[in-house]
Specification:
about 130 residues, WH_DNA-bd_sf, about 5% strand, 5 helices, UCP029502
Length: about 130
């Protein structure tokens, strides 16, 4: 029986030079490695992974690396600069949910930061 997914020239797709080494030929992009850490973090807190959660947490981590803090407007602006068209309300709701689950904390100045337990989870994955 003919299977169109199996090459008929005697070469397998995995070793054929035309196909390269698949996605591993490009290596792991830094963003993918960061996303894996954030995915693990969300899993540890019992949350499903979504693009908006990944991007919101990444924005907070980037701000913390630059010794800055972000509120709802700051996170929303950062995402818009990255070309991620999310509504202000969506960003606010994600931040509220991440707060209620203990992943991030709302500071006295209305900015958000990673909760220390979440920071420990990320440090263990570094």
């Amino acid at each position: 029986m003919y299977n169109p997914q199996v090459p008929t020239d005697g070469h397998s797709k995995a070793t054929d030079t035309h196909f390269g080494k698949g996605t591993q030929a490009f290596g792991n992009a830094p963003e993918q490695q960061g996303n894996q850490r954030i995915r693990h973090l969300l899993k540890c807190f019992g949350l499903r992974t979504s693009l908006i959660r990944l991007k919101v947490i990444d924005a907070l981590l980037t701000a913390a690396d630059n010794q800055r803090t972000l509120g709802v407007r700051g996170v929303h602006s950062h995402l818009l600069e990255l070309g991620i068209p999310l509504s202000f309300l969506s960003v606010r709701e994600v931040l509220k949910r991440l707060c209620s689950e203990g992943v991030i904390t709302l500071n006295a100045d209305k900015s958000y930061s990673l909760h220390e337990e979440a920071a420990k989870v990320l440090e263990s994955r570094a």
